[in-house]
Design brief:
This protein is an all-alpha fold. The protein has five helices and no strands. This is Succinate dehydrogenase subunit 7A, mitochondrial.
């Protein structure tokens, strides 16, 4: 059975190319590190004329903090509403029992 799978075209389709070249030198899966050239370093350098278009870490942090606070406030409000409804329902049951017990 294994011999038939090895010979079938379907099995060879799913086999990786590295398994096909068992005898030849294998190609490394990662490339070697190459130092950046002058042009790449110039492109990665900070440009003062583009500074106003970049997001600043402080403003992003502040906006994230505001979002976190709003999320906590909304969740707390929802929990409070659920609690109030549960208390009102329990009070209504107690009143109904008391009214039913008096009859």
């Amino acid at each position: 059975m294994a011999f038939l799978l090895r010979q079938s075209s379907l099995a060879s389709h799913f086999r990786s190319p590295y398994q096909k070249t068992e005898g030849s030198m294998s190609v490394p899966s990662r490339a070697f590190h190459v130092e950046l050239g002058d042009r790449e370093k110039a492109l990665l350098a900070e440009d003062p004329s583009l500074r106003r278009f970049k997001t600043y870490k402080k403003s992003v942090w502040r906006l994230k903090r505001i979002g976190d606070v709003l999320t906590v406030v909304v969740v707390a409000g929802c929990c409070y509403e659920i609690y109030v409804k549960a208390v009102l329902r329990e009070e209504a049951r107690d009143k109904a029992k008391a009214a039913g017990g008096n009859k």
